[in-house]
Amino acid sequence: MAPEIKIRQATSTDAFALRRLAALDDRPALRGQILLAEQAGEIRAALSIDTDRVVANPFAATADLVDMLRVHRRYAAAVAA
Fold first, then answer.
1. What's the rounded Cα separation, in Å, for the pair 52 and 35?
2. Which domain holds residue 43?
3. Cα–Cα distance between 56 and 45 in angstroms, integer?
């Protein structure tokens, strides 16, 4: 059975994990509103709602997680409109 995937908005308590994820991906940290994809209790990918920029764990399969984040973002934008 595959680990549960959780998509949620980042909070201030995620700041350290987001900086760690960005460093792991060798990219600048994301700013502003951020969506997270958690799998097995770990943040595996994050998407900036404002810029569509992504950071993801390069040592895990994250392409599907990034796709899910983008779909979630588009859906949330459509519902809010």
1. 10
2. 5-80
3. 4
Indicate the pTM of the whole model. Answer: 0.91
**Pairing outcome for strands 54-56 and 34-39:** unpaired
The greatest distance separating any two alpha carbons of the chain, rounded to the nearest whole angstrom, comes to 37
CATH number at residue 12: 3.40.630.30
Percent residues over pLDDT 90 in the chain = 85
Q: What does the alpha-carbon distance between residue 51 and residue 41 come to, in Å, rounded to a whole number? A: 25
pLDDT in tens, 9-32: 999 999 999 999 999 999 999 999
| DSSP assigned state of 50 | T
